[in-house]
Design a protein that fits this description.
The protein is mostly beta strands. The chain has 3 domains: about 1-40, no CATH class; about 55-150, Nucleic acid-binding proteins (OB fold (Dihydrolipoamide Acetyltransferase, E2P)); about 180-240, no CATH class. Helices cover about 5% and strands about 45% of the residues. The protein is built from 2 helices and 16 strands. The strands form 5 sheets. Strands 6-8-9-11-10 form a 5-stranded mixed barrel. A 3-stranded antiparallel beta sheet has the order 12-15-16, with no helix packed on it. Strand 5 (about 55), helix 2 (about 60) and strand 6 form a beta-alpha-beta unit. The longest helix has 7 residues, at about 1-10.
Length: about 240
Amino acid sequence: MWSTTAKNGTAVKLTNTTNKPDPNSKSFSIHCDRNTVMEVIDVNFPHKPPIETQLMYVEDIKLLGPKQHVTKLQATVVKVNPPTTVNAWDTACEIKECFLRDKTGQIMLTLWDKLVTLVELNNTYEFEHMQTRAFRGIPTLTSSRSTIIKPIQQSKVFLAGQEPKVTEDLDIQTTKLISKPQGAKIQIHKLCPKCHQSQHNFNPKQQLHRCTTCKVLRQGKNYLTKCSGIIESGLFSYNI
């Protein structure tokens, strides 16, 4: 029924739901269970499609806690482990672990059942609707029933012949510079923990800040910090 109403753009009325507040903002999420009743109704305002799914990056995903929704990620598969079978919910399920990399880092994704055949080594994909997990304290990703995987034509996120080796702890490999730096320019950006967009006119001295994209007012300490910059030498400029 959810799919039908979404396709037709019709309004629905929900009863017997549970509201769970977001500790980082004044918003809340609506949870449905087996007692929830949904009925189609007529309203006096037009249907408005949702905002396009926001693209996220590995470095931002690693800052999220467990069981958080990851909207969209574009990454290259740099390692694929053989599929295995596990028992979950009294059912034998097939899983496959693969390692994804974009321009900001690397993370492991666990694919379940029908999704295990959709990825191949060294190919680039767009992944939508995943969830975060923590394996031995290390952030990872897992697919869900809503996960969508689409192949895309995109250049690899690192140069040919300079691919970093996949490490078991999933840490990002570093590059050694053989040149004397002459200067550096460092920029600090603040990202919204909900929509992950850069903030404008962010004042760290103010207790509250309203996101410039999703317009949610939350405490300034809850915004994510992202650092980037350029190291300059007599031979080249290197982005960090």
